[in-house]
Design a protein that fits this description.
Number of strands: 8
Number of domains: 1
Order of helices and strands: HHHEEEHEHEEHEEHH
Radius of gyration: 18 Å
Bound molecules: zinc ion
Strand content: 5-15%
CATH topology: Aminopeptidase
Shape: globular
Distance between the termini: 9 Å
Number of helices: 8
CATH class: Alpha Beta
């Protein structure tokens, strides 16, 4: 317990330093993407984060106060589905990889303005990222939660709105694409990781409803490779069905994306607050 707390405080401090640095330089808080551009592997990334934190802690005041729950900067990993050679769903001129990247950036902008959440995107542009790498990238920056954004293309138009998934068996949903050559095979998440993911998923689903966004009446399950983290509670969010022209138009609207981002921000904040309390018991 104490170790967990110390780990959290250490990480928060480190992140606050980076937050300050990026605010000062007027650049994005999405530092992981910037570091990624230099093609650093995870070990190098960690080394640089630590070395940078030590160097900066001497010159940058840590002004951001810890909130009541004790965590100052929780990292929200946002994973825009598909990208590059994998376009995802393509319906009536709409392309899933583009739509979800836009939604992910909108959500990141929103989180960036919050005092306690730091967004990290697994892809910032139209690049192809293997599924396991998305999880590993999130874990390498110490992600606290992992949110993968997608849009459906289901044949039968079902007017069901947003569907939130956690890792689990579901015979009706295929396991997803094969691994890329050299891609790491991740073991399935532990029971406690899955339970935490379900708590996060349910909170997001209910808060979307609270903000007037229609959702499926339950949290769904699928064996998606991006939901395999054992460290980060992970959910996959299908924003809507692109086959339904009305729904497609709705989810790409600025009004929807604003409401969606607000609802997710609130849900993630409340979830992390509760999990912190839970860990403190
Ligand atoms: Zn997708």
């Amino acid at each position: 317990m104490l170790l967990r707390l110390l780990g959290r405080v250490g990480r928060s401090t480190r992140l606050r330093v980076f937050q300050e640095q990026f605010l000062r330089s007027g650049r994005s808080l999405l530092m992981g993407c910037e570091i990624r551009d230099f093609h650093l592997n995870n070990r190098e990334m960690r080394r640089i984060l630590l070395a940078g934190a030590f160097a900066l802690s001497a010159i940058v005041p840590l002004s951001a106060p810890a909130n009541a729950a004790g965590s100052a900067s929780d990292i929200v990993v946002i994973d825009p589905g598909h990208g590059g050679k994998n376009a995802g769903a393509r319906v009536h001129g709409r392309v899933e990889k583009e739509l979800v990247l836009k939604a992910a950036r909108g959500l990141a902008d929103r989180l960036q303005k919050s005092k306690t959440l730091v967004p990290y995107l697994t892809r910032w542009d139209d690049s192809f990222v293997p599924l396991s790498d998305r999880v590993l990238r999130g874990e390498s920056v110490g992600g606290d939660v992992f949110l993968s954004l997608h849009a459906d293309n289901v044949r039968r138009v079902r007017d069901r709105g947003v569907v939130v998934f956690v890792y689990g068996m579901n015979e009706t949903i295929p396991a997803g694409p094969k691994r890329e050559p050299g891609e790491k095979k991740l073991p399935p998440p532990t029971l406690s990781a899955r339970r935490a993911s379900t708590r996060l998923a349910e909170r997001i689903r209910l808060n979307l409803q609270k903000h007037g966004i229609r959702t499926a009446p339950y949290v769904d399950k699928g064996r998606f490779a991006v939901l395999k983290s054992r460290q980060m509670p992970s959910v996959l969010i299908e924003l809507g069905n692109l086959r339904d022209p009305k729904e497609a138009k709705l989810i790409e609207s600025a009004a929807f994306q604003e409401r969606f981002s607000k609802a997710v921000e609130e849900a993630v904040s409340a979830f992390l607050r509760d999990e912190f309390k839970r860990a403190g018991k």
